[in-house]
Amino acid sequence: MALTPDRIIALKGVADALQAAGHGNKTAIALNQALRLGCTVKTLYRQLEEAGLSQPRKRRSDAGQLSISREEAMKLMAIKTTAQRANGKDGMAYENAAMLGRANGLFAMGKLDKETGEVVPVAPATIARAIRSYGLDMKTLRTPAPHRGAKSLHPNHVWQVDASVCVLYYLDDGGLGVMEADEFYKNKPENFQKRAKQMVIRYVCTDHFTGTVYFYYYLGAESGEMLCEFFIRCMQPKDHEKEPFHGVPFIVVLDPGAANKGALFRNLCRLLGIKVIIHRPKNPRAKGSVEKHNDIVERGFETTLIATRVESLEQLNEAGGKWRRWFNGNRKHSRHGHTRYGLWQTIRTEQLRLAPDAGLCRQLMTGKTAMRDVRGDLTVSFGGVSYDVRHVPHLNIGQKVEVAQSPYRTDAILLIEQDEHKRDVHWVCPAVEMTAGGFRADAATWGEDIKAFADTPAVTSMKAIEQLAYGVEGKLAVDQARRERKPVFNGLDISSHLEATTPASYMVRPGTELDIKTPVTNARKEDLLASPADLVVEVRQLNLVQLAGRLASAMPGEWTPEHYKRISDWYPAGAPESEIGAIVDRLKGFTEPPRLRAVGGA
């Protein structure tokens, strides 16, 4: 129905009536007006909107309020995030997480019904809206943490090394093939497994300060030997006119791969004086320079291989070298605005540490070191040659030190120590120059001069202790005090601290009289041998129980309760031990009790 002027006037009346209607009356008014105008309620409201007469909906009184607290949202997201798969797929819906949390009493996750007083679970949409409002949704939580990049100080200060699987692999019939996306992807791992030993590995090294990149291709899987070979290649001099990048870095940064943490690479770096930094897992930004140049090499060089047939690794590395030299020498780095080789050429003499030849570097991979004792002339023996260590502080005679052949000098060794942070500290110790007679060239000459080494820490400490004890200065004064037998610290009271000590109070402990089994007491061996008739004999008195026990032993198989009753009548206070035989006879013959003899004049 067209919106004629008359129709608009009629709709204006409807709009005024709806606006004036109270709460709950608008539905009836809209129905009556729709019947009057000959249309449905839906059409009525649509025409009111088209005529510009509709009123905006009132904002709900609880608009902007959340029925879920932040603490509840945190608990729900704790369930949801921990249920994620390793690939990051979000596997649990808000509704399932809410049901699990409610069932275990972690939260209510509901709103109060004012009419019934019940807590009604909120809808999943309400949960999602509250979580987004609190900034706890997965999209927000997955945003990366802020980072602050680290700087390097000069060329060859910091290198970053990384290895990646190239888009090429070795073909069975020779040559190299490109891994097609429809054949090699995550859902077909068996294809990767078939080609595992034929994969082409790309090793990339970048100088962090200049951005200079060096890469080389190898066949097979990553290994410690492969990493060392690539690293040695990076350090070796090349064609200086075309590729100046070389030298030994001060720091190298790698990911926590097994080969990178292996003994071969660590030994090589340790003896070359290179600090190895292994960043934490799943943190590729820590070596962002090499990660980015991996992408640059793949997109800038490897994508061009579709235009040619690569027959061998040698051909691939030769083509890669040409592209590498062009890229480093012509493309300007966006950070410093220079070509990479151009800025690398600013390296100073003290910053460029020349690497040993490749053969010696390979020997260093084994990390052969030895423990040696510091000898009395402050030297150590290594390989049959004496090396001077007197310039190394805090060494004492007889102290064990770790030494190795220096990779930079044939006439010196490295003395390796560790600082308080467990980092290696290298001391270069030169060989001792000897004369034709086998003496040290720097030794003192008889009758001409006197030379002495500086005191070792042990000697210095001993001198200080002696001077402190006698209160004097100088070795001569200490010796004089010793000769005069002066007491230390001008004499010490050696007993006052003993007298001042309050002894403990001890209680008298009750004892048990010794039960002497022998009838002879107070007799010496000489008396027994001299006049046995003069000895005093003491007879042991047995109580009733002891007497019964002795009698029972003397009458095996014959002792009865009747016997006990008789001796308790006869001897209620017991009897002497010497009367056992007479009592046994009396029990057997029921004779009169024996007459007791007085002992000891009693």
Summarize the helices and strands and which ones pair or pack.
Blueprint: H1 5-20, H2 26-37, H3 41-50, H4 70-82, H5 94-103, E1 110-112, E2 119-121, H6 124-133, H7 138-141, E3 158-170, E4 176-178, H8 189-194, E5 199-207, E6 213-219, H9 224-235, E7 251-254, H10 263-272, E8 275-278, H11 288-300, H12 313-330, H13 340-344, H14 358-364, E9 370-373, E10 379-382, E11 385-388, E12 400-405, E13 412-418, E14 424-430, H15 457-470, H16 475-483, H17 496-499, H18 525-530, E15 541-542, H19 544-554, H20 561-570, E16 575-576, H21 580-589
Parallel strand pairs: 3-7, 7-8
Antiparallel strand pairs: 1-2, 3-4, 3-5, 5-6, 9-12, 10-11, 12-13, 13-14, 15-16
Can you characterise this structure?
Strands 3, 4, 5, 6, 7 and 8 form a six-stranded mixed sheet that branches. Helices cover 35% and strands 14% of the residues. A hairpin with a 5-residue loop joins β13 (412-418) and β14. It has six domains: 5-50, no CATH class; 70-141, no CATH class; 158-351, Ribonuclease H-like superfamily/Ribonuclease H (Nucleotidyltransferase, domain 5, 2-Layer Sandwich), CATH 3.30.420; 369-430, no CATH class; 453-480, no CATH class; 538-602. α9 (224-235) packs parallel to α10. With 602 residues, the protein is an alpha+beta fold. The longest helix is centred in the middle third of the chain and has 18 residues, at 313-330.
